[in-house]
Design goal:
Helix content is 75%, strand content 0%. The chain has helices at 2-28, 43-52, 59-71, 86-121, 126-140, 143-157, 169-199, 202-209, 214-232, 234-242, 246-251, 257-266, 270-298.
Length: 306
């Protein structure tokens, strides 16, 4: 087990290094520089700013400097947000995105799994068609359309909920539902397909032939094995959700990490984009590692070996 964990940690470090390296060089291929977007700055001042931040040095020299600082936990300072460190911005904004993500997961996963199970157990009936319809609509309609409709219906027309900002519980309802709907739709489809596939397996037929009740068959055999595909996508899904939705945060004016990522890309804020990319990469790698461990818990046939 120790060898396995050490191997996974080594692979994780290599993955993060590759992500940081490719992101660094790909970002530098974009035309322009971070200070050209600030139209009030004269060309002479832009040149001085480039020199001050070391952007006039050879590219590989910049890379070595950045990686050396990164090893010491220093992600640098943002070019767009004056006198603010990238790590400080992440520390202030990530809790907001994580809060929104956890709320949407708490709603999306139970409802999605329930609807998928109902659809599979009522295959070909009205309940199945209704669940499939909900899933198709949830996947097909973009987030910004769903969010805009919710804002118009519950905020503008009914006046029941605020349509923007992040100041209290009532402000979290519409963005949480907006983010939860795609999760519900995706899980409903995946769970339904997985349940139907498992239902045709030989061990399910054997369980039924032994006289087990439908409840025992579903809970002890079908659900547990049907959850394996769900767990497969759990790591990336959770990591992506907790990091925030760029569209939803922009639409509802939420001061989360997604908003800063979008603005930093538009402003060519190299250090901010790199810092957020690396932070998301670390989060994703950690989530996938946890998922690998969960495999052995959900499916006894899967064993982690050295």
């Amino acid at each position: 087990m120790k060898r396995y964990i050490a191997k996974r940690l080594f692979i994780s470090v290599i993955t993060i290094w590759a992500l940081a390296t490719f992101s660094f060089f790909l970002l530098r291929t974009l035309p322009g520089n971070p200070f050209q977007t600030q139209q009030l700055l004269k060309p002479e001042i832009q040149e001085k700013m480039m020199t001050y931040y070391g952007l006039d040095k050879p590219l590989f020299s910049q890379y070595l400097t950045y990686m050396g600082n990164l090893l010491h936990g220093d992600m640098g300072y943002s070019f767009k947000y004056t006198n603010r460190s990238v790590a400080g911005i992440i520390a202030n904004t990530f809790p907001v995105s994580a809060d929104l993500g956890l709320r949407s997961l708490a709603i999306g996963y139970p409802i999605g799994l329930l609807l998928g199970t109902i659809a599979a157990r009522r295959r070909g009936k009205k309940a199945d068609y209704l669940c499939v319809l909900i899933a198709v609509l949830g996947v097909s309609v973009p987030n910004f359309v769903v969010g805009s409709l919710l804002q118009w219906g519950f905020g503008v027309k009914a006046g029941l909920l605020p349509i923007a900002q992040w100041k209290g519980f009532s402000y979290t309802i519409l963005p949480t539902v907006t983010m939860a709907i795609p999760t519900i739709a995706s899980l409903t489809r995946t769970m339904r397909a997985s349940m139907l596939e498992v239902d045709n397996q030989d061990y399910m037929k054997t369980a039924k032939a032994k006289g087990l009740s439908e409840k025992e068959t579903v809970w002890r055999h079908q659900l547990r094995n049907a959850m394996i595909p769900i767990v497969t996508g759990l790591g990336p899904a959770v990591a992506s959700t907790l990091m925030g939705s760029f569209i939803v945060e922009q639409l509802f004016s939420i001061p989360g990490i997604g908003k800063h990522f979008t603005e930093s890309v538009q402003a060519l804020d190299y250090t901010m984009v790199l810092g957020l990319t690396i932070f998301f990469g670390i989060f994703l790698v950690a989530a996938n590692f946890i998922v690998d461990i969960l495999y052995g818990i959900i499916d006894p046939r899967i064993r982690i070996t050295d």
